[in-house]
Amino acid sequence: MRMRKQWREWGYHLYMVGPAIICLLVVIMVPFAMGGYYSLTSWNGISGEKSWVGWDNYIRIFTEDVQFFNSFKFTLQFTAVSLVLTNLLAFVLALGLTQALKTVSLLRASFFVPNVLGGILLGFIWRFIFTNVFADIGEQTGIGLFGLQWLGTSSTGFWAMIIVYGWLITGYLMIIYVTALQGLDPSILEAAKIDGTSYMQSLFRIVLPLVVPAFTICLFLSLSIAFKVFDLNLALTNGGPFNSTQMVAHNIYAEAFQKNRFGLGSAKAFLFFVAVALLSLAQVMFTRKREVSL
Amino acid sequence: MTVLRRFPARLLLLELLLLLLALLFLYPFYLIAINSFKSFDQIMLDTIGWPDRISWENYAKAWVATNFPRVLLNSTLITVLSLAGLVVIASMAAWRLTRYPGRWSHLLFLLFVSAMIIPFQSIMLPLVEVGKRLGLMDSIAGLVFMYFGFCISLSVFLFSGFVKSIPSEVEEAGYIDGCTTHTLYWKIVFPLLKPVTATVLILNGLHIWNDFLMPLLMLRSKELHTIPIATFSFFSQYERRWDMALPMLVMSLMPMLVFFLFTQKYMIKGVMSGSIKG
Lengths: 294, 278
Fold this sequence. Notes:
Chain A is mostly helical.
């Protein structure tokens, strides 16, 4: 009798947890392990031949592959610049959107819209704007900035990416800041006002310290999203000109599916994972530490 | 935040400023919309002005050339089927793992959470191999299964966080009344999970609907293309033929924009609660 009950419990474990585990193993865990193995071979993805080359792929990446390093550098620059600008803009917007405005929900929705659309579509919208509309605005207004070849050079391509990415992500970060600001106790601010603090004083001395957790969330979110950007990169500049605006994710994609070097691509993919994992680890450690100190 | 409450003039100024900024934010959509009606020659001459004529000719051409109804159906099917399956398998697993704590449950839960870190680019190469060997390539069912796997971690994580917050007394009462685990789960527990189910649906739905790379790698035949893939291949085919590409772009944007218009409150809330926990 007890045996039967135990069997039935195992049956339920299998029935309820089994499908989820199978999906995870087949789609994530097994491919991840296979990728680790591929990264040590010279496979081209087409022929059946996978010859073992040991650490060769990794050595090659670190010693010969200039483009991978340029992509990495570009990605880091992009991440750093976009992180500062988008968070600044998002926070300022959130400050405005927590005032007693009449159109507040309309405004919030307007800033949030780009976020529900895919990177490919957004990239194409802006490709049209950068290549066609900007030229026309430049002609009509005579402002030189609009006359530039925005997607044609590496430095303007960088800023084009920043603009579109900022357009995409700012509304999302803004919503997080809005929630944090709304969570503040209004009586604290009232008290401060009665005591005669100016708006700027209460912003820097009271509001900012109280929304530090929101900053932590947003900073790490921006880090991990910006670092992994692919769709926008593909649709907007496609890494060009001469791969000068190629992000790491795009570099891995090109290595594997355009140059058919699966072995090398797998090694890069693994390095990419290590970088992302380090970021996540830093996040966990950082938030843990904060919790202790609070 | 009521800091500025006593200065109505300043508030008005702030509101106008923000409205102006919001218009600037939405201006790209307006530009795409008006230019999608223009003839090729007019687009080349002037992209800012109002179109010479409002005709649906461009749209008719793009609609047929991309087989848009089919594309829309594919995207819808893939998203709906993936979401339905995900909610079922993820919520069951999360409930079972949370309600039967032990070394194994803990280990499995850790496995789910740690898989969240792995970026798609790190598994996409071997995933194509796995897909080929299991016959999952170039089929909607195969892609749906891939989404089960790719979205399961976050879903289990979100569900189990919520399960922890509901008291287990209800379930114990159910057992005493003689429910089997199966009926208990579907009749009593699952309905309680509604708020987190909405979050899971919104977060994964947005991801799956907009996803580009996974369907690009998994679907070869044109009849199975989803909206992002169809837009991409159409753009590569009609490079610089903006009178064809722009109407396609507008049609691709429409479903999600309309959906957002009607559900914006829930969507913003859903994305929000997902980001804080994730």
